[in-house]
Fold each of these.
Amino acid sequence: MSAMSLGLQGQPFDGTSRDTSFVSNRPQQDGLRFLRSAFADRHGGAWIYGASGVGKSTLARHFLREASGDAAVAYVDGEGLYASQLLGAILERFGYDVAPGSTDELLETLRAFLAQQAHTRKPPLLVVDRLNRMYPGALNVLCKLASMQADGQFALRFVLLSDTDCNHIIGSPSMKPVADRLYGRMELRAFTQKESLIYLYEKLRAAGASRPDDIFPADVCDAIHSAADGLPGALNRIAAAIIDQSDALPVRLSRIDCDELTVVDEESPRLVLTKAGEVLQDVQLVATRVLLGRSEMCDVIVDDRFVSKQHALLAWNEDSVILIDLNSANGTLVNSRPVKSRVLRNNDVISLGDHRVKLIYANAGARTDYEDPDLADTATMMNIAQVRRKRSVRQLPLKVVHNS
């Protein structure tokens, strides 16, 4: 049954209109108060995290509409962006017609814009979404932007959004310029059962329903809440699907199966970068080609003197990951064995200098052609120097000593 046939002005859960009902609930009100305080603070930085679908992006966009009267604002989804792509996207959001250029050129253009805005005493506001899915090169750009000052004040205010409590990223030494700017961090929680009911009913009222409980009785709202785990994004998807599939009102709980309406997102590969057993980065891959190396232009930066500027390339699809060594000076190891190219499997460990990179990708399957017992621990894998020492021992000439 279509939404129009229910007497509604349109589908209330398609997300095409401004979600005023979203910000009327307690979690979003708390989030708005937090962002307003951070915006007014001299540090001018805020970090909000929470599960995918909890409403971070909607909250941030609502806040941008509030702030747009006082300053230039921009929203950028950082997922899978390289350093130059991030800068280009920021400049475009601030109204620039961006021509292709190097990272340094784009950074200087943005620096000039921020310096110009500083004269108005209203630093621009930037929202960067999906921080946990950004590549290290783009994170490095964020640090440079966070460090910029003009006329004795920070040149840019920012809000960072992430799907996880990625303190291993923001708390790392390389992210100190960003961490030092944070007014604070906040977890945006999911709706309670009562908040989910209020949200669903307000959405229905906004679409023209005078009695929302004639469409979704309370027990149906409770079932939707349970299936969605209180996440507004999932509430919308499930409620929209129920309306489309219903053939009579009110909707009866016995006629729907919320389990079949939940959406499970496919996970892309993850790379866990460690050194001496300490996790330095946990990167969710988005781009299908990923460059690893020491250069700031790489997607995954490995700061190691034994790692080449452009050391290795990863290419992946829905069921495989291929590693290619780019003629690096010191070579690449996979599970302690030197390789030039390799089809990787789930939990394979790449050694780059003194660093380890573990691939986590269930779709790639498990390798069965080795018996190494310690592959689960990236700290135990041999590095380049260890392999060289092992080779040198094997190549030593045998010295025979005759006892008289």
Amino acid sequence: MPFARLATATTPTCHIGLGLAAVGRPGYINLGRDQDLGENRSVEALRTRTHELLDAAYAQGVRYFDAARSYGRSEEFLADWLNARPDLDDIVVGSKWGYTYTAGWTADAETHEVKDHGLQTYERQRAETDALLGDRLDLYQIHSVTPDSPALTDRDLHARLAEAAAQGLTIGFSTSGPAQADAIRAALAVTVDGEPLFRTVQSTYNALETSAAPALAEAHDAGLTVIVKEGVANGRLADPYAPDALKAVAEETSLGCDAVALAVILCQPWAGVVLSGAATTVQLASNLHAAVVDLDEGQLERLAVLVEEPGAYWERRGQLPWH
């Protein structure tokens, strides 16, 4: 399958990918966004910024790029970049369906995205993604599956996803919310003609929110590639917002809090790809230093005290304003 190319990548940062949630649309919930993007958030300004990030990421060894239908114009920006570089055949591209972007390119919309995991939404968004990314798309994920998602029980949807898999597309899912572990285990049980449907899982895991770890280990053992998102907790684990314990360890390593936060994830044996959500090339370079951070047991123990109860973590995340 195309996504398996990541397992054989030889570049030093092959386990770090780039997610485009923060740069595909003018509004998002990351802290410090006003400083990152400034006032000019026109389509062309963010297209240019995205292309600069993609150039920098590729030059530094990143080979997985992650978009979504709900990330504004992220697929469009990525497609433009790929179309200008047709000879790059070592890139793996993932996107997601299940949310529709509704903000109309504003940062202060009342509703930024609408969730729907029905078959009709899949058909519509699959066609939209195909029109932009075509055969450059390697991985298509159901966006933010929760235990009550109809995507876990809709056999007609499963059949259509299996058809796409038979044509060479890797099918995966992402999770969100305090019951990520339950959603992962439910998804692992989904089969079509006796074969597992999903080959990848993308979940939130970071120094504050570790509850999905046992289920992610089970997914890894079942043969799925595990992709980790929100490794710096929407900026809560990056300077200047990081907690004191993280700042202290970062000072010991002479690297940024963000690099240390991502390094904690890279320590997990089940972590296949860890996403950077950088909005600037400076942030990206700092994120990529995670690959050389060597945390000892004492430092990991000191960081373990940062873990929050899942309900509290997701409640606070839900209160983050769209900037």
Amino acid sequence: MTPARIVIVGGGFAGVECARRLERKLRPEEAEIHLVGPSDGQLYLPLLPQVAAGVVTSLAVVVSLRRVLRRTEVVPGLAVGADPARNQIVVRQPPGSHRVLDYDQLVLTPGSITRIIDVPGLPEHGFGMKTLAEAAYLRDHVLRQLDLAAISDDPDEQRERLTFVTVGAGYAGTETAAMLARLTKAAARQYYPRVDPELVQWYLVTHSGRIMPELGERLAERAKQMLARRDIELIPGASAAEVTERSVTLTTGRVIPTRTVLWTAGVTASPLAEHLGANTVKGRIATDADLTVPGLQGVWACGDAAAVPDLTAPGSFCAPTAQHASRQGRHAADNLIATLRGRPREPYRHQDLGMVVDLGGWDALARPLGIGLRGAPAQLVTRGYHLMALRTFNARARTAFNWLLHGLTGDDFIRIGLIDRGPHTIGDFEDTGDYLTPEQVREILG
């Protein structure tokens, strides 16, 4: 029997869980498994705000793929094009060469990228929070603003450097703003005698009047109270209209002098979705309930890049969360195995088990199984959830030790010099300019 060649695109939650399941349930003579990803590590995205705040180190939030995948070939590179008619994908590998991979079954889990809307100046001056490099870069930038404010004699420059604006009040934006506000206030009090802590100002801008609506009204109100205690001003009913090097203009007309605009106002599916010729829903690949892509033989999609029907809420689609991505990855593997063995496929169905939010210190919110928690109980649930979700003992041990060390010794205000090497845009970090057009894909494939 010739083994089926299975190619998984993406090393996030969905892709890794799919590969692990396939390894456990398929014999080597049944399938060759290949996973294409930009690195050999799985990034645990929910802890990126803690990396930016210095609570945990970068290594603590990355799981080695070679530790969790025993017989899957990890192909380093970025899938930048696909031709489903020829069962081939194009992978850009360092230092820029292209490799063509053939497949019998293709599982698309390329995840998402920061959604950049048509806001003048945003691509050049905005900061994202989608990759490990972006989190480390943002931390360097924020601490550098304190350094430069401390040596400036210009009150206007000081005010700009000590003002920070986050656009988007979802989980990433709210957690990052809360943790960095805590960090910058503490730094100004302890180590910058020339900086007035009262001048350190954080804003959280949201298009609606609510933050993290998935938490429910009661817990969302608690979150607002926690943010207010950090002196974070919530600006509802607004978004960014223009971003410059020294200010952001909101859609309400308000101008905020600042050198830091963090953009977390949503994500969009990987540009790879455009190459398939499949139907999309707001950029996400439309799938059937069994995670197959209609009209494309042997193509599956799950995770953030897929619009999967939510059978627990008819008429809607599963939210692009880590919880859904992990379960969809395992389910796609089960259905793929059933297809190879001539068995029927099952529709994906999963009831959301709740949400957790860490705002730094003992400020946390959680809603496990619909039960609202806040404060210390919520923080214990939140950190327990994160430790369970990390896939290796190494990652769990590093993260737990980082939490313990931070709790005992407090913050360190160390920059590693990333910002000193020149500015980088969101597109630079997320490789959005590397994806090929369909014409370029055809040229490479011949």
